[in-house]
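Morning!

This is the sequence you dropped in the shared folder:
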Amino acid sequence: MASSRDSSGPERCGRPETVVRAYSIPFQADEIILEFIEEYHRIAKNVLEEILKAEKLTSKERRQLRDKLLEDWPYAAHYVDSAINQMQGLVRSYKRKLKKGKKARKPRLRKKFVYVKSTLFRLKGSVLRITIIPRKYYLEIDLAKYAYILPFLREIQEEKLRLGGLFLFPDKIVLNFVKSVEYFEPRDLMSIDINLTNVTILAGLNVYRFDTRELYHVHRVYELKRQKIQKISAWNRRLGEKLLKKYSRRERNRVKDFLHKLSNKIVEIAKERQMGIILEDLNGIKERVMNNSKELKRKLSKWNARELQRMIEYKAKWHGIPVIYVNPRNSSRACPACGGWLIPQEGRLMKCPQCNLIEDRDFIAIVNLRMWGVRGSPERVGGFEAFADEGLMKANPYGIILLEKQRLGLKVIECS
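The structure's back. Tokens below.
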């Protein structure tokens, strides 16, 4: 069966949708805030234990739990509601996974933070005022000090967006900006194929190839560092844990920076060309292809496809760019010109024994993804036979490009 996310773009255009962008600002908590975060974390853990014990938390049980938690709670009562809602959401997600037969770890709280509902803060001009203890203690922060937040403050004043719930950490505050967007009607759709060492994009008559070997190299460098740290841990566990935490943070930051820059470039291409975006539905792909292979697990641990897709999607949606997902199964094995099955050749080339097409597998994948994004994947529309009446060439104009791409002026743009 095709993925449930496999859908056509035009159906979504014009429909308003709520999208969120999150930004963090540095913050150093004082003793009162630190104690508050500890107390919130404590009651959240208690709530989690109670919900996991109960088959189902009834309205009556919820009220009783709330009243019990409020007995010695000096802070705003809404924080108790936030903790209960947060833990209920966590347990629901856990039970959904179990119901679907997926492996799921029992939920537990690791990071210490507080969810601040919109009823617990007020934004006046650029000053954010958060209620901690009603009528006694408030946290005030001037957001105008952070240049990257100023464009959002202007849009809030123009009522184009609003500030949603906040996350309060000991060292930062995460701001969630929320707005309703309407997707534009795209002139065309651009398809994106994310591989281990490159990202290939088909946008009109341009093929963009972004080299991601640097990202693979970052993961490899820190993998070797972790191996050395494991040897240190054998004789000094505390030092090993400290070093592991330090270098893991550096790796995450470098990867995140690379992915943000790359996703910005991709979304900018779609925005400039007024194109929708087609992405591969990679849900569960690691579980399907692993087959307990250690070598494959090691390689896929360096593949940030899902995180890159997440960034592309939320940034695209923010600009009203429609994003659709298609099932990528056989996208690099099916001939987009005639529907035959391709045979691997030297390097990354594939050959069709029916029409003698020889092409790069990444290019074949983006051509198929573009066609399937418009028409639906073969599995969704009844197999390749569904195209028989009009032929694959008419259903997919890029099939012609495959055979005559030099004459038509197809450009391959190598991007760094």
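Headline: The longest helix spans residues 237-273.

More detail when I'm at my desk.
O.
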